[in-house]
Design goal:
mainly alpha
């Protein structure tokens, strides 16, 4: 019986290369795209708060506060979920097996 010699593939810095599938990369890309989808609405919210003119209309502020707070609350929930998902995905990638090459 002949034994095969198995080596780990390494980078130029002699670090082992991990097995990362396209599925893993696309899962992370989807999560990042979900976070990026908030960009436009957050720009609108930023404009809303940046363009305060004096004198302040208290009724308008109270009226707009609810909708803006709801948008922010929804964003924070989604952001937290995405960050947790990214952390889980990164942990899984770090635990992946190293690429082995048999000769």
């Amino acid at each position: 019986m002949k034994k095969e010699k198995v080596e780990l593939l390494t980078t130029a810095n002699n670090q082992p290369i991990k097995q990362v599938s396209y599925q893993d990369m696309y899962a992370m890309k989807d999560t990042l795209e979900q976070l990026e989808s908030w960009t436009k609405i957050l720009e609108i919210v930023d404009i809303h708060f940046a363009n305060r003119k004096l004198p302040l209309d208290k009724k308008k502020i109270v009226k707009e506060y609810y909708s803006i707070s709801q948008i922010f609350g929804t964003f924070m929930n989604d952001y937290s979920t995405c960050i947790n998902r990214l952390e889980t995905q990164l942990d899984q990638l770090m635990k992946k097996e190293k690429v082995r090459m048999s000769q």
